[in-house]
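hiii so um. not sure if this is the right channel but i have a protein structure encoded as tokens and i wanna go backwards to a sequence. like what aa goes where. can anyone help
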């Protein structure tokens, strides 16, 4: 199947990037509603690679966050195989970054859409264990895997700057 790699999210949040609020007007102005680049036509599976150290209970909590917004997932699978790296069709994979991944980025997500239908067919979340343990990061990345873009509203789950984000999900309900 042919597909298009749609975008790569780099969630920033390292303490050294933190700027005084006065120099960061973006959290005040959120224009319009959150934008969704593409959607799933099927209910995706989520496959969590052991290398990320994301536990079943942690991923279950993140999945519940999105289920509470109306999204449906098929299975949650944990995978201990060393080649747990690439998503299968119909799957959101959570794996560790490839080498060369900038260390000051907390995580990244890529979605792949079908050239024929435009639907999301698979997604890849890359995250280091230390960032996976941080509050909200997995939820934020699953948001990208569902097609959502960044949204600069303070305390919103899709805020691009981690420390300005929160569990808000204005505009995300399915
Ligand atoms: Zn992001």
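sure thing!! here u go:
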């Amino acid at each position: 199947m042919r597909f298009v790699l749609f975008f790569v999210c780099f969630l920033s949040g390292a303490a050294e990037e933190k700027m005084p609020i006065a120099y960061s007007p973006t959290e005040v102005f959120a224009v319009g509603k959150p934008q969704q680049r593409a959607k799933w036509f099927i209910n995706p599976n989520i496959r969590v690679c052991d290398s990320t150290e994301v536990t079943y209970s942690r991923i279950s909590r993140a999945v519940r966050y999105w289920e509470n917004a109306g999204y449906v997932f098929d299975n949650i699978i944990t995978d201990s195989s060393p080649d747990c790296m690439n998503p299968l069709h119909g799957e959101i994979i959570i794996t560790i970054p490839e080498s060369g991944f900038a260390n000051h980025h907390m995580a990244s997500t890529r979605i792949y859409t079908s050239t024929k239908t435009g639907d999301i067919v698979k997604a890849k979340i890359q995250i280091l264990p230390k960032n996976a343990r941080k509050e909200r990061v997995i939820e934020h990345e699953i948001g990208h895997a569902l097609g959502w873009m960044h949204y600069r509203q303070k305390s919103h789950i899709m805020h691009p700057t981690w420390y300005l984000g929160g569990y808000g999900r204005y505009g995300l309900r399915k």
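oh and The first strand starts at residue 3 and ends at 8.
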